[in-house]
Amino acid sequence: TPPSLSVAAATQLLHDGKPVYSCPMHAHVLSDKEGRCPICGMDLTQITKIDDSANMPSDDKTMTMPMMESK
After folding, report:
1. Which of 6, 23, 38, 58 sees the fewest Cβ atoms within 10 Å?
2. Per residue in 18-71, pLDDT tens?
3. What is the Cα–Cα distance from 31 to 5, expressed in whole angstroms?
């Protein structure tokens, strides 16, 4: 499992033209190496920009998911 980078460090690497990898499900997991997410085990994918969702999740945010209608 590669070490996680800070948003500032990842932004600097991208600015310098170096690769940065992130988990598709956990955008705050950032690395300068390929590998797997330490949270879910998914392969990290190379990204070209830092999204606002890369900030660490905080307790004051809640995630809502639409419920599927049952038939």
Report:
1. 58
2. 999 999 999 999 999 999 999 999 999 999 988 766 665 544 444 445 556 666
3. 5
